[in-house]
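Why does residue order matter? Because the sequence determines the fold. Keep that principle in mind as you read this record.
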Amino acid sequence: MITDREKAAFEAGIKLGAIYHQFVGMPIARETAGAVEAAIEAATGLQPCVTGIRVRLNRDLMVSNRFGYSELAGKMFDIEITTRVGETTCRARMLLEDDYPMMEVIGFS
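Structure:
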């Protein structure tokens, strides 16, 4: 039997991983980044156990190709998510660390 703490951490991690794999490679531009951030927040916020999410995309890494857009890359993500299972809350994030998008648990309450 897993604990609420373990399940809250799992839920946070699985949602961060899903965001990464669903959105990497999609066309994006600085002008559309805000809409993409809002869409990721709204869609992820619908899922079970999610009580909060904040998505920011690093626009400095969005270099337009000859067609006027960039491709969303994992290193552009700055995400913080909060999940709750029972009485346990987990805060986790995805953030660029040493040129790699790392996912980690920030803490529990």
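The helical segments are 4-23, 33-45.
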